[in-house]
Amino acid sequence: MSLFEEFANRDRVFEFLTPVESPVDVRHGPILYLEDVNVSFDGFKAINNLNLTIDDGELRCIIGPNGAGKTTMMDIITGKTAPDTGSVWFGSRHNLLRMNEPEIASLGIGRKFQKPTVFEALTVFENLELAMATDKRIIPTLRAIMRPEYRERIDEVLETIGLKDLRDNLAGILSHGQKQWLEIGMLLMQKPRLLLVDEPVAGMTEQEMERTAELLTSLAGKQSVVVVEHDMGFVRSIARKVTVLHQGSVLAEGSMDQVSNDPEVIKVYLGEEA
Amino acid sequence: MWLTRPLRERSTQLFLGVLFAALAVVTLLHLTMPEDSPFYVSSFTVTLMGKYLCYALLAVAVDLVWGYLGILSLGHGAFFALGGYAMGMYLMRQIGDRGTYGDPILPDFMVFLNWQELPWFWHGFDMAWFAFLMVILAPGLLALVFGFLAFRSRVTGVYLSIITQALTFALMLAFFRNEMGFGGNNGLTDFRDLLGFNLRTDATRLGLFIASGIALAIGYLICRGIVTSKLGRVSVACRDAEARARFLGYRVERVQLFVFVVSAMIAGVAGALYVPQVGIINPSEFSPIFSIEIVVWVALGGRATLYGAVIGAILVNYAKTVFTGVMPDAWLFLLGGLFVLVTVFLPRGIAGLLASRRKKQDEPTDTDSDTGKEATA
Fold this sequence. Notes:
The complex is a heterodimer of chains A (274) and B (377). Chain A has a single domain (22-268), classed as P-loop containing nucleotide triphosphate hydrolases (Rossmann fold, 3-Layer(aba) Sandwich). In chain A, 35% of the residues lie in helices and 23% in strands. Chain A contains eleven helices and ten strands. In chain A, strand 7, helix 8 and strand 8 form a beta-alpha-beta unit. In chain A, helix 4 runs parallel beside helix 7 (176-189) and helix 6 crosses helix 7. In chain B, the strands form two sheets. Chain B has a two-stranded antiparallel ribbon with strand order 1-4. A two-stranded antiparallel ribbon of chain B has the order 2-3. The two termini of chain B are 44 Å apart. Chain B is 71% helix and 2% strand. Chain B has one domain (5-327). Chain B has helices at residues 10-32, 43-67, 76-95, 108-112, 128-152, 157-176, 202-228, 230-240, 242-247, 252-278, 288-301, 307-326, 331-345, 349-376; strands at 188-189, 193-194, 197-198, 280-281. Chain A binds chain B through residues 78, 101-102, 105-106, 110-111, 113, 117-122, 126, 129-131, 133, 136-138, 141-144, 186, 190, and chain B through 1-2, 226, 229-231, 233-234, 236-237, 239-241, 243-251, 254-255, 258.
């Protein structure tokens, strides 16, 4: 068909005009697929031929020494950083490299930052309200009202993250651990397909860590969860499958026992408990 | 509806109650008291208070973007002045052939500059509806274009504040030029009537005062409606953790743009009501100092409360009227000193002081009711 016929054909919408609303296609298994991704900052290769596949409903831990490219990888998936080369697919239908941050967020990828970032001047309830998967455009947001089903959904999440009694407190007065849970709760409000969690237990007490492990394992299955973590004890307590990153590429992948007996991994983590 | 929601709030009811009571009292005293009575409110005072109300509306607009969106605009005087110029152009066209040179179409300054015909952008301003539309549209359009460019490039914080200063400064220089067609450094003045009412009569002055009060009430309601809506909470979210808001799926730059444009339009209305009351509009309203002064009013009154901005604007301007009369040279030092004192001792402004006092009063009553319960039990 010539280009003219292509444009003259009026019984269909041009491909570039169709909105990307179609549901995430996970019929082939993987929900996230990174292939041959490369990123360099001022000549420093932060990500070097990275290949990574996350299956739907999986709980995956990603470990690696400082500078292994863990956070950069998260930045690429969420659209904050554009890779130099490579491809990143969400399901087998959505090319993440062609979308910006809000589009990727509304597609169902939620991200938890290293440092807990909640809206401190708003209450716990309001934090969850803003995170809810609703119409995020200006005028609908201005006219939004609190519907009973929204309230139920928020209460449900408050129950899951264990902050029910603190719902009307300002998020600013929460403890460090509680802020982390609130942030995970905010991600859950978006009904994400994929949760990216960056160092969830940094600075947590022993009990808080246990609660967090419970929370994350309870989420897996309903949604895919990718956890980036330094704390080996914590990774051991939740991990089914672990990926080790080193200098921007995958060094080893497998169960925690497999990985921690891998000679390459031991070399990289030499002197560290692994 | 988002606009009527604030009416159910106690703070809004209180604010509107006080505002309308003040309007009613001033009107009554002005109309009924004999001129030699100590309670008589002169026409001069009525106009002065109308001016304060316009400033208060402007301060509310600034508080909306600064307090709730975290955008410190040091150029809101530009939107105020644009609204004022739109009104001024209408008032100039209303003079008709009663000007010094008696030209039926051309305002005096154009005749003086030997211009033969009206510049294109002066057309339409002889019609009130068009001029009033421009009062809102001109500042709104400037804010839209400026905000679109600034927020899209994610310019925030100090850099944005500096650009807003540059914006108003550039406009001031432009409006000073005679070739711009806005009367150069003399601006627009010698107004006669508005909608057929003679601007020099007491009744019109009173009417403008009441109109300013009503505009303040409506502007306050609009701002309050926005900040109590979900969009208001999103604004606060963008203010405190922009990246988080973006990852939640909000278009931060659009939120900023929307609120900024609304704020600029409100500032424009304030300027339009201000001009017929002071009788002149000239480029000095664009001066960076004026825009900074507005921010000082809001800071003094208390950020992110809206009513604090109103209190701050009225108090500072009242003080300005008093002190520039008594010691004209000391005023700027006093204003600076006041700003420093408030920043150090009252970081949340006068509104913060009121809020903490109310809390203190509430606490003892709580314990009182507790002991009361125990006694009855």
